[in-house]
Amino acid sequence: MAPWKELKEMTLLNKEVTRVDGALKVAGTAIYTYDVQRPGLLYGRILRSIHPHAKVLSVDTSEAEALKGVKAVLGKIKDEVNFVGDDVAAVAAVSEEIAQKALSLIKVEYDVLPFTVREQQAKKEDAPRVFSGRENNLGRSNENSEGDVEKGFQEADAIVEHMYHMNVQVHTPLESHGCVCEWRGDDLYMWDSTQGVHGTRSGMARALEIPENQIHVITHHMGGGFGSKFGPKSYNVVCARLAKKAGVPVKLMLDREEEMLAVGNRPSSWQKIKIGAKSDGTLTAFEMESFGTGGVGGGAGVPQPYIYHFPNWKVKHQDVHINAGAAEPMRAPGHPQANFAMESAMDELAEKLGIDPLEFRIKNDPNETRQQEYKIGAKKCGWDNRKPSGSQTGEKLIGMGVGSGTWGGGGNRRTEAIVNIYPDGAVDVKIGTQDIGVGTWTIVASVLAEELELDLADVKPFIGESDYPWAPNSGGSTTAPSVTPTVKLAAEAAMAKLIELLAEAYETTPDKISYAKKTFTLTESGEKIPWKKACAALDGKAVSEKAQWGEGLSSSGTAGCQFAEVEVDAETGRVKVKRLVAVQDCGLVVNMLTARSQVNGAIIGEIGYVLFENRLLDNDTGIMQNADLENYKIPGALEMPEFDVTFYDEHERGVIGLGEPPAIPGVGAIANAVANAIGVRFYELPITPDRVLLAIDKRKEGTS
Amino acid sequence: MSEEKKHDGLSRRSFLKGVGGGVVGTAVLTSSRRTSAAEQYGDVVGPDAVEITLNVNGQKRTLTVDPRVTLLDALRDQLSLTGSKRVCNKGQCGACTLICNGRTVLACSMLAIDADGADVETIEGLKTGDQLHPVQEEFIKNDALQCGFCTPGFIMSSVALLRKNPSPSMEEIKYAVSGNLCRCGTYPHVFKAVHDAAQAMKKGG
User: Which of 216-255 (A) contact B at CB < 8 A?
Assistant: First the structure.
């Protein structure tokens, strides 16, 4: 196995290469799951619970079945529904309008049960039960510690202690969850908007109790997932059953409201944190008691103590269920939550100690890469111009803040790929990964072309089908470090095989053939054989080499920091992020252009989390009050800061995933910048104008 | 109008209007006339399917639609023009933006029958032969797309802007696409792409 080429020898990797699927996407001809059309296609719809908690006593579908145009009906999917939006029944009809009409004809008899949508209430012993018959509403818990926390706090000269709270965020991919199911005999073909064609295939096989090789999952293009689309989900199974019943293909795409209710969110977090440090700025102890809710799911834990070194620490966490849709991993699950609480507490403690917040971090951050990144970022953002917190008056208040992040993002050793070289010179690679918007089509093709010293246009990538060799779900920033080494190794194997066959054809030995830039040279005679001629000489024998992921071409573990400059309008309470400086390590950057897009996007996600996004559940009805794109606000064009992105070069570490690492540090950075601007700290996200105005009023009261 | 499209009945829109205005009786009485929806704007069509003609990307396309079907669904489901995306389906995100009679519209919020006889430009019609529109070219060059689901809407908003204003400022570009939502976070690259497209179009003529 050869290492990656030297950077200066690379022609495609580490360069700005435009997407190979770009032309399809800008022309509107890339076919997403939502766009798939099949002969005789029906439209599926799911009837969803209007109650946060109820027993489903009966489901009468007779009128729906009698409606003209209705082709299949599934009655009573579950005996108990546990959140508004839970599955009740489903129909497939010749048009979406008829399917919708049919849902309204289904008569459901519910036994409505008590519910809870507030985790503070839900964790109490006397709270209504989220799931009938359970002892309580508690999910997983964990405890961990190191050193002696009490001793640590005794050593501290200053201590900060607060409850930090973050509400639920919703993934909001633009393409909703959904699929098209088509049975061909015993085989199911499923176009699905998923982050994992192989994972979805395995799950469907279990759910339908049929062999994996009878299921074919296809995801050529998909409109975003951010962690919410690790299939299969109940809609997949419902759609497959409707299609089976109807005997024709069924498309079942969720509408925006369903998307927000039923298929994933980032859990809330409540972290009661206590941190202490000596007067010289050395951290001595950290203690946290936390809880949070993933609705009827889990996953609300946070990786504390985050980033900084505490010789003594103790954490305790409890997941709490409420009657709301299940959480799914969302871009760096747990990390933004940990980051907000930790970075906020760090800033406040620095202020108490009279130490510059950046100096305080540098003193306590054990990561060597980030030590360098702090210097770069501080210079780029002009940290020296940061004013003391709350020192400004007037209408526009400027603030600066810093935050840090870490992530894993290594490769999956089970990943496989096949590289084919055909007698006519054509080259392709087949790998069962998927492009969820990050540019996987392009990096797969780029690695193959780079390795075989061909042009990008000479190679054809095949991805997004579960019939191709196994690759992991696109999650945890593992795609690039799984896929790129594997494709490289398959390409290496294919080239070796090609040379071996060529040696036979030219009656020489492989070691007497060299290759560079589409030309083979017989080193003894000096004869040059161009690529196509060489492939033709294989006498009709195609090269088809499979390889599995190997060590040494990728790593895990990233370091990053971000600096935010914000402007707070003291009259309107609006916070505008003016500038966001990101310094990020991700090893060998495979594609400088798409990597930049990833970092920009991650930062924009942070802005949404800190300033806008907040799932609102009505306490009396359990209904989400802002389940659309008007009232659940995600960042838009007018809220964009100036972006300043630097990749900290550690290419020798090989490829590391980048989707999640930059989605973390800015959370604390932005929150700290707001606190720096107005002189009041927020212990709760999002920092919306109403909260800013209240805080400013409070400060005035305090000082007057 | 060269060809006349026949239908009768009651349109959902006219019906709703009628109910609101208390003139439903009038609407029903005049519904026996057979004429096109475009000519009889405000008159009644439906409830059965209605034949309409759209001039889509320079081609006359005749189709039969339920009066309740949106322009977006008609294009996507009947004409297989799936470039315009369905994301919120209620005019909140801009993913279905297209150009109708020279103006940007949200195709999810317009009934197909209201587009009868209209010139409709979709993302699929921007190419000239195999040649991408400069805005499309610059979206690729600047990587102004990630998952690409919002991209057609952004491109249509940007094309409409550059037709009205060939030299937009950065602020004007941001404003022009402020009705388009993106979750992957392509905005900064979109701004640059539109800026570069304006430059390219000026040079290229």
Answer: 221-224, 226, 253, 255
